Amino acid sequence: MGLLESVLHVAPVMPVVVIEDARHAVSMARALVAGGIPAIEITLRTRAALDAVRAIANEVEGAIVGVGTVRKPQDLLDAQQAGARFAVSPGSTPDLIAAAKDSPLPWLPGAATASEAMTLSEHGFIFQKFFPAEAAGGAPALRSLHGPLPEIRFCATGGIGAHNARDYLATPNVACVGGSWITPSRLVAAEEWGAIEALARAATLLRA
Predict the structure, then answer these.
(1) pTM > 0.85
(2) Catalytic residue among 129, 134, 151, 192, which?
């Protein structure tokens, strides 16, 4: 099993984290790992993102930290240099596909249609992010894709929370789901690490 495959199967949920203050990164990651959620996607939406990745990679035992919202080849290089273990994109471009093939960093590209999924599969990317999941048809769309594209496995992300995650996880081509509900900004800002650990523990039970 490759690293990306193991990352997608290590827990039912991958937290998608927008972190504003890198000082919160280590405590937040420790809470997630303690709650049974080791794979963490830190999105490149803030200036603190790469510092947060670096801190988690260096200080949090058991964490598998990745970088999300990768949009250009330089993002892959920056993620690798910060200590990320994997990279996630909302979609794909020819330049990004080419860079990902040359990068040692495992890459989870985004797809929202059968054509996009097929193109990525032709390039060897059978693990993909289905995004934006709810807007693109939700779990029924993923079930429809499974028949003609049985080899592709998805991390479904976008509009997913505790209320609908089970439906996605019951879909045969879904390895895990991504979402921000485990690390809501209000709890991170308030440093409510016990509450985040509790949300992580609850998320591990979603596939049960």
Answers:
(1) yes
(2) 129
Active site annotation includes 192: no
Would you tell me the crossing angle of helices 94-102 and 73-82 to the nearest 10 degrees?
30
72 assigned to active site? no
* pLDDT over 80 (residue 208): no
Of the candidates 20, 41, 72, 151, the residue annotated as catalytic is 41
> CA triplet 158, 163, 166: central angle to 5 degrees?
85
Q: What sign for the dihedral angle of Cα 16, 18, 21, 22?
A: positive
Which domain covers residue 117, as residue numbers? 3-204
In 3-state terms, what secondary structure has residue 13?
strand
Q: How many domains does the chain have?
A: 1
CATH number at residue 25: 3.20.20.70
Entry field: residues in the chain: 208
pLDDT surpasses 90 at 177: yes
pLDDT in tens, 55-85: 999 999 999 999 999 999 999 999 999 999 9
